[in-house]
Design goal:
single chain; alpha/beta; 8-stranded parallel barrel; two-stranded antiparallel ribbon; NAD(P)_OxRdtase_dom_sf; Aldo/keto reductase; NADP_OxRdtase_dom; AKR2_Oxidoreductase
Length: 304
Amino acid sequence: MTQLGLGLAALGRPEYLTVGHSAAVDGRFDPAALEQLCHAVLDAAWDSGVRHFDVARSYGLAERFLGSWLSRHPNRRENLAIGSKWGYAYVADFQRGAEVHEVKEHSVERLAEQWPQTLHDLGGAPDHYLIHSVTPDSPALTDTALLDDLRAVAESGTRIGISTSGPHQADVMHAALEIGVFSSVQSTWNPLEPSAGPALERAHDAGWFVVVKEAMANGRLVSEDSALGRAADANRVGRDALALAVALAQPWADVVLSGAATAAQLEQNVAALSIDRELITAIDVDSHEIPEMYWHKRSQLAWT
């Protein structure tokens, strides 16, 4: 099992916030064609040794696509770790240029609705089940009825956790660490936005399973001028691979997600596993953006 995982955020729905996504994925508004592409990328990931797959209710049909892939390869499930997330509903319905793509709700009712849907689409329970995008204004960490329902899910054998977004990821993790329900976290960390690092280290030391998402800053580290981009170009390695390699080098990271939308992108991402350690440690993660500015820029990215 490699430390590299595959997230299906860009493979279960036709539009996503990754820079250049629309140019990479042809026929993405046809669910059948997108499912075929998703299966091809999952096959490439499996062949490359990737054994952690990440989905969510808001990732369009990602859970269903992963479930149908698993039904074709039932012997693979015991060798995989699957994470899924609840709390957002996908509402764009594969419509081109939809104004709203997902709607967030962290409630007892949403959990009761989405947990059975996840079980159905995946064909069984995920190994990790996370509240999607917990921020300081979310009621998820203070709703005792919701926390009790999550404890019940945990008793069935699924690890309960949170995913985080926004400039206050560390605050959310510190609060979640005190509750006693959670043992898994998925957070944004990359050289432009490393502010969650100390909190992720604390979570890891507490026995939590730590997953890094958006290690390429939604494609910004590939498409924009940056210290990492210049280092990658000078050393003739892929910018995407170097960004992933920097995240993989963090001692508290159990899995770093690739967001590859094609098999070719997945192959380029897997090159992160063979990048020289000296090049990785030379990247200056101190030349980061102020978190509020980073998340403002992310909010301005177009769904394509």
